[in-house]
């Protein structure tokens, strides 16, 4: 069955001067792929991976262009227009994506970069965007375990820290005290489940917990020392930014890691950096 607002692999059933028609099955019939999107050498019977959406006339159409998001995705998009029904954002296709006024947490303005959830409106069948994320998240019980690695998307900045979408399904919170490096709305990154509160809310960390976190960074330090010929111009005197740029970790964790390696006699801590102990 054809999935509107997503990628589909469809067979070429007719070739015409202005493009090719693809087999959309009984529900959709033949779907046009305009000539501008047809890969060179395409022939009758070929299978093409295409994105299916609605054109400016609200007719179903195919494209080989890659949108910035598809149905079910969260993405940061730019507001490019305002109309009587809502705001339009650029999602990489000829027809901009509508964010209806009813789906805006606050009124949008042209030029804004906003986080949008792309979905199919059940009433109209149209692909639209929403900035009201709560209606899409935490709708299913989570199966996360403390310490589990997850993929997250920074969606909002709050007084407490950063609200992040976990695996596209649930809310999580990354406290400011757990944050380091350059974080911003729209950034995708790896995180870890720090704890799960009795009310089901999830707290996140950018590092593994406890000893596993320190051991992981210690291994990275040793690998980098070997790669750099036994010396790295970083120490406990270096800035948090310099340390993060190389090891993607906090200064506190870095200091614990090199302290442990020093006690084991693996490395030497010098004024200008750290060095492998040849002895």
TrEMBL record:
Taxonomy, superkingdom: Bacteria
Gene3D superfamilies assigned: Nucleic acid-binding proteins, Winged helix-like DNA-binding domain superfamily/Winged helix DNA-binding domain
One Pfam family this sequence matches: WHD_CvfB
Gene Ontology MF term list: nucleic acid binding
UniProt xrefs under PROSITE patterns: S1
Residues covered by the S1 motif domain: 72-132
Recorded family membership: Belongs to the CvfB family.
Record PANTHER family: CONSERVED VIRULENCE FACTOR B (PTHR37296)
The protein, known as: GntR family transcriptional regulator
């Amino acid at each position: 069955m054809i999935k509107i607002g997503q990628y589909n692999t469809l067979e070429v059933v007719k070739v015409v001067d202005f493009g090719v028609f693809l087999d959309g099955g009984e529900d959709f019939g033949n779907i046009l792929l305009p000539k501008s999107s047809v890969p060179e050498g395409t022939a009758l019977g070929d299978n093409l991976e295409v994105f299916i959406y609605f054109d400016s006339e609200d007719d179903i159409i195919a494209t080989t262009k890659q949108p910035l998001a598809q149905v079910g995705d969260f993405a940061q998009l730019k507001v490019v227009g305002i109309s009587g029904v809502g705001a339009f954002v650029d999602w990489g296709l000829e027809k901009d994506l509508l964010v209806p006024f009813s789906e805006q947490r606050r009124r949008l303005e042209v030029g804004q970069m906003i986080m949008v959830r792309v979905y199919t409106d059940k009433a109209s069948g149209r692909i639209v965007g929403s900035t009201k994320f709560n209606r899409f998240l935490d709708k299913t019980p989570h199966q996360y375990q403390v310490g589990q690695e997850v993929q997250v998307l920074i969606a909002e900045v709050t007084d407490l820290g950063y609200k992040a979408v976990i695996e596209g399904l649930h809310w999580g919170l990354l406290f400011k005290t757990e944050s380091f490096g350059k974080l911003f709305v729209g950034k995708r990154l790896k995180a870890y489940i720090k704890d799960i509160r009795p009310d089901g809310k999830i707290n996140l960390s950018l590092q593994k917990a406890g000893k596993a976190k320190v051991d992981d960074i210690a291994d990275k330090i040793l690998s980098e020392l070997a790669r750099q010929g036994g010396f790295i111009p970083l120490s406990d005197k270096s800035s948090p930014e310099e340390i993060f740029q190389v090891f993607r970790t906090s200064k506190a964790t870095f200091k614990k890691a090199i302290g442990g390696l020093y006690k084991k006699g693996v490395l030497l801590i010098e004024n200008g950096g750290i060095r492998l102990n040849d002895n």
